[in-house]
Design brief:
single chain; 361 residues; alpha/beta; 3 domains; five-stranded mixed sheet; 15 helices; globular
Length: 361
């Protein structure tokens, strides 16, 4: 169902739950209810609506929000939307198109009698596309990060093989084919290395600097217990990484690790949580992805080196969907995550799918 059709259609799935006349069930009311459902727990949305003279049960807020989100997913990521994604690309090519990916965990409801080794935990994958002006060095030699002109996001609980085409379609809507430069920024988790290779084979991938620096912090803590020595070592290691001296960084870390244990053939040969295992784990990680850590060159090209924007998008979704005793059905989680991501988009896609509000004179 198209946007206009949905906005003007009678919302039959919730008909039995609205305790007020049918002709008052406006599209704007459905919008308000869906926004409440994506902002707070369904029960917490009852009071503000009651204050406005709209007595709605929390189950109505849930059903309306989830139905809206389900329709939204089809509008943005259905087969027809993916085919048309290139046609929606703007005429003006972005100077720099930044594509980021990340993920967060939330808990699904476990049906009685069903065994679940993960205790309901599942991953919500989040993607972000930003049209940017390239970063530059100022007169003092400080690097100014790329300036974001417009960014959009998407979220799904679906498998990474479904997430990849959706993220590519979103990038195409924002000028992937015409962009002067395209860069991918993420850590190496959530199936992203394979996604980048499959769907963005001609784009360069920057490994998130902040994530790698976090691994160096863990290494410093494994080497020194004393805080002053630990912090001094961490800043030295981080400086080497920032300067692109990955070989020197690996040599220093390996020297510390070999004092504890010689290089293992497999990490499983080392005791869990041991200092040696921590060090070799992060050394192997840096060795595996070192070709994506050329941070001085990335800065010279005006690229971002960290994926803070998509991490903020994950946090926004997590603030609503994670918490004590929060359990979601798969469809419900998909729907609410889609609404949160759409409302955060800078292109106004959420507001455009609803009738224009009647503003007071």
């Amino acid at each position: 169902m198209g946007t206009a059709a949905f906005a003007n259609a009678d919302f039959s799935p919730a008909d039995d739950y609205f305790p007020f006349p049918k002709d008052t069930r406006s599209a704007r009311l459905r919008q308000a209810i869906s926004e409440l459902g994506s902002d707070c727990e369904f029960r917490d949305g009852v009071a503000p609506l009651k204050t406005l003279g709209i007595p709605v049960a929390f189950k109505t807020i849930q059903r309306v929000s989830e139905a809206t989100g389900t329709t939204l997913v089809e509008e943005l990521h259905g087969a027809a939307a993916s085919v048309a994604s290139c046609d929606e690309s703007p005429d003006n090519p972005p100077e720099l198109l930044v594509i980021q990916g990340d993920g967060m965990r939330l808990r699904k409801r476990i049906e009685p009698g069903v065994s679940d080794k993960s205790d309901g935990w599942t991953e919500c994958k989040v993607g972000l596309v930003a049209r940017c002006l390239k970063g530059r060095y100022d007169s003092n030699g400080a690097y100014q990060q790329p300036q974001t002109l417009l960014q959009t996001s998407l979220a799904t609980l679906d498998d990474v093989h479904l997430f990849g085409p959706r993220l590519k379609a979103e990038a195409e809507r924002k000028g992937l084919q015409r962009a002067c430069e395209v860069v991918l920024v993420s850590d190496a988790g959530h199936g992203l290395p394979g996604l980048w290779r499959e769907h963005f084979p001609d784009c360069e991938w920057v490994l998130d600097f902040a994530h790698t620096a976090g691994r160096l912090s863990a290494c410093a803590a494994a080497i020194y217990a004393q805080e002053k020595r630990r912090r001094k070592l961490f800043h030295r290691l981080k400086g080497l990484l920032y300067a692109g001296k990955v070989e020197q960084l690996l040599n220093e870390l390996s020297a510390f690790a070999k004092v504890l244990k010689r290089r293992p053939e497999s990490l499983s040969n080392l005791p869990e949580e041991s200092a040696a295992r921590i060090l070799w784990t992060h050394i192997f990680y840096i060795e595996t992805y070192r070709e994506h850590m050329d941070y001085p060159r990335y800065r010279l090209r005006g690229w971002p080196i960290a994926s803070g924007h998509v991490e903020a998008a994950c946090k926004r979704i997590g603030n609503r969907m994670k918490g004590a005793n929060k359990r979601w059905t798969s469809d419900g989680a998909e729907a609410i995550a889609a609404i949160i991501a759409a409302r955060a988009c800078g292109d106004g896609r959420w507001d455009k799918r609803w009738p224009t509000p009647i503003l007071a004179a």
